[in-house]
Amino acid sequence: MSSEKASSSENIVSQKYDRCLADFLVKAGVGFSVGVVASVILFRRRTWPIALSTGFGMGAAYADCDRSFNPARVSGTRIISQTDESK
Protein backbone atom coordinates (compact mmCIF):
# COMPACT_ATOMS: atom_id res chain seq x y z
CA MET A 1 0.00 0.00 0.00
CA SER A 2 1.13 3.53 -0.63
CA SER A 3 1.86 6.01 2.11
CA GLU A 4 -1.07 8.17 0.96
CA LYS A 5 -4.23 7.51 2.87
CA ALA A 6 -6.93 6.45 0.44
CA SER A 7 -10.55 7.11 1.36
CA SER A 8 -12.54 3.93 1.36
CA SER A 9 -16.21 3.96 0.51
CA GLU A 10 -17.02 3.09 4.13
CA ASN A 11 -15.19 6.20 5.33
CA ILE A 12 -16.99 8.38 2.80
CA VAL A 13 -20.40 7.06 3.82
CA SER A 14 -19.49 7.40 7.49
CA GLN A 15 -18.48 11.04 6.96
CA LYS A 16 -21.76 11.72 5.16
CA TYR A 17 -23.76 10.17 8.02
CA ASP A 18 -21.80 12.22 10.55
CA ARG A 19 -22.47 15.42 8.62
CA CYS A 20 -26.16 14.52 8.30
CA LEU A 21 -26.49 13.86 12.02
CA ALA A 22 -24.73 17.09 12.94
CA ASP A 23 -26.85 19.05 10.46
CA PHE A 24 -30.01 17.41 11.84
CA LEU A 25 -29.16 18.34 15.42
CA VAL A 26 -28.28 21.93 14.52
CA LYS A 27 -31.33 22.57 12.35
CA ALA A 28 -33.75 20.88 14.74
CA GLY A 29 -32.22 22.85 17.63
CA VAL A 30 -32.53 26.14 15.76
CA GLY A 31 -36.11 25.30 14.82
CA PHE A 32 -36.91 24.44 18.42
CA SER A 33 -35.38 27.70 19.62
CA VAL A 34 -37.28 29.77 17.08
CA GLY A 35 -40.47 27.94 18.06
CA VAL A 36 -39.97 28.65 21.75
CA VAL A 37 -39.33 32.34 21.11
CA ALA A 38 -42.34 32.60 18.77
CA SER A 39 -44.50 30.72 21.25
CA VAL A 40 -43.59 33.00 24.13
CA ILE A 41 -43.72 36.29 22.22
CA LEU A 42 -46.44 35.81 19.62
CA PHE A 43 -48.70 32.89 20.44
CA ARG A 44 -49.37 33.10 24.19
CA ARG A 45 -47.34 30.01 25.10
CA ARG A 46 -48.99 27.55 22.75
CA THR A 47 -47.09 24.40 21.82
CA TRP A 48 -47.83 24.19 18.10
CA PRO A 49 -45.22 26.81 17.02
CA ILE A 50 -42.52 24.74 18.73
CA ALA A 51 -43.58 21.54 16.97
CA LEU A 52 -44.00 23.29 13.62
CA SER A 53 -40.64 25.02 13.58
CA THR A 54 -38.83 21.93 14.88
CA GLY A 55 -40.46 19.97 12.06
CA PHE A 56 -39.32 22.56 9.54
CA GLY A 57 -35.76 22.24 10.82
CA MET A 58 -35.89 18.46 10.69
CA GLY A 59 -37.34 18.55 7.18
CA ALA A 60 -34.62 20.90 5.96
CA ALA A 61 -31.96 18.62 7.43
CA TYR A 62 -33.57 15.58 5.82
CA ALA A 63 -33.62 17.31 2.42
CA ASP A 64 -29.95 18.28 2.73
CA CYS A 65 -29.01 14.74 3.73
CA ASP A 66 -31.03 13.32 0.84
CA ARG A 67 -29.16 15.61 -1.56
CA SER A 68 -25.88 14.47 -0.04
CA PHE A 69 -26.59 10.79 -0.63
CA ASN A 70 -28.55 11.11 -3.91
CA PRO A 71 -27.17 13.98 -6.00
CA ALA A 72 -29.18 12.83 -9.03
CA ARG A 73 -32.43 13.78 -7.24
CA VAL A 74 -31.56 17.48 -7.21
CA SER A 75 -33.68 19.20 -9.81
CA GLY A 76 -31.72 20.86 -12.57
CA THR A 77 -28.74 18.51 -12.41
CA ARG A 78 -27.66 16.03 -15.01
CA ILE A 79 -25.44 12.99 -14.64
CA ILE A 80 -23.12 12.88 -17.63
CA SER A 81 -21.48 9.59 -18.52
CA GLN A 82 -17.91 9.46 -19.75
CA THR A 83 -19.01 8.65 -23.30
CA ASP A 84 -21.04 11.90 -23.44
CA GLU A 85 -18.07 14.00 -22.29
CA SER A 86 -15.96 13.05 -25.30
CA LYS A 87 -18.47 14.54 -27.78
TrEMBL record:
Alphabetical keyword list: Membrane, Mitochondrion, Mitochondrion inner membrane, Transmembrane, Transmembrane helix
Topology term for the membrane: Single-pass membrane protein
Cellular component GO terms, alphabetical: MICOS complex
InterPro entries: Mic10
Cross-referenced Pfam families: DUF543
Major subcellular location class: mitochondrion
Transmembrane segments: 24-43
Subcellular compartments: Mitochondrion inner membrane
Subunit relationships: Component of the mitochondrial contact site and cristae organizing system (MICOS) complex.
Family assignment from sequence similarity: Belongs to the MICOS complex subunit Mic10 family.
Function of the protein: Component of the MICOS complex, a large protein complex of the mitochondrial inner membrane that plays crucial roles in the maintenance of crista junctions, inner membrane architecture, and formation of contact sites to the outer membrane.
Protein name, as recorded: MICOS complex subunit MIC10
